[in-house]
Amino acid sequence: MFGPEGPSVRELAVQALSSVERGYDLLAPKFDHTPFRTPDAILDAVGSALRSAGPFDAGLDLCCGTGAGVGVLAGVCRERVTGVDFSAGMLDVARERVTPTGPPVSWVRADARALPFAPAFDLVVSFGAFGHFLPRELPVLFAQVRSVLRPGGCFAFPLVAPPRPGSPGYWALLGFDTVMRVRNAFWRPPFVMYYRAFRLGDVQRGLAAVGFGVELQPLPEFGRRPDGSPRVRLVMARLPDRAQVPG
């Protein structure tokens, strides 16, 4: 699961018994050598889709981690790119490893549930971070994203189809979520990472509730499942061109 440059079992155990923020501070130097980093294939596919939808002026990578998604934004944004994360350790690694090749890049430490920005972005992306938010937190998260987008702005993120019930992937995710729930029942502070809690129907309803129009774009690079549905979709949530207050 982890290469020789990845974290040891002991390091993972220490991380798992920490808070989310402290855990990622500890993991940051080796994060890019774990399966938790978004694969380049997904980053490239999202970048290709966004180039067709763009260009954009200012972009924000929400929960940017070590900055892998910032490269996607740098390829589609003309003026500036910002990465925001609440882990100081992850941001330190991002500053060291990400070399801007397009618009200038800035890094901001902040909680995604309380973003310190005006409506100054045309595009917000996020990769692999939603498992760190409980379902009840999604309305706040989506409202925060809406608050930093200009009229007509877009919130885009990939969503992998859940594994079929009874498949090895299904049991692996169920087992992981069960272990996390048991851990959080007996240990404080909690470590929120639930891979099965971010469901497409809930996401669509939550985005619509704060004023987004939602489109689902298949990423053809990943093909389709036996039932014909896409293996990976790009969720494209757009605001109307003129600011409106949701009813």
How would you characterize this protein structure?
By secondary structure, this protein is of the alpha/beta class. The protein has three domains: 1-36, no CATH class; 38-162 and 199-247, Rossmann fold, CATH 3.40.50; 163-198. Helix content is 35%, strand content 21%. The protein has eight helices and seven strands; from the N terminus they run αααβαβαββαβααββ. It has helices at residues 9-16, 20-27, 40-53, 68-74, 88-97, 138-148, 168-186, 200-209; strands at 56-62, 77-85, 105-109, 121-125, 149-160, 213-218, 232-238. It has a seven-stranded mixed sheet with strand order 3-2-1-4-5-7-6, with helices on both faces. β4 (121-125), α6 and β5 form a beta-alpha-beta unit. α3 packs parallel to α4 (68-74) and α6 (138-148) crosses α8 (200-209). It is globular and about 50 Å long. The termini are far apart. The mean pLDDT is 84. Keywords: Methyltransferase, Transferase. GO terms for molecular function: methyltransferase activity. It is an enzyme of class 2 (transferase). Its EC number is 2.1.-.-. This is Class I SAM-dependent methyltransferase.
CATH class of the largest domain: Alpha Beta
Task: Note the gap between the termini.
Answer: 47 Å
**Overall tally of structural domains:** 3
What is the number of beta strands? Answer: 7
CATH superfamily of the largest domain: Vaccinia Virus protein VP39
Q: Mind telling me the C-alpha Rg?
A: 18 Å
What form results from the Cα inertia axes?
globular
State the secondary-structure class.
Answer: alpha/beta
Pick out the low-confidence regions.
none
Portion in helices: 25-40%
Largest sheet data = 7 strands, mixed
Task: Indicate the mean pLDDT.
Answer: 84
Number of helices: 8
How much beta, percentage-wise?
Answer: 15-25%
Find the CATH topology of the largest domain.
Answer: Rossmann fold
CATH architecture of the largest domain: 3-Layer(aba) Sandwich
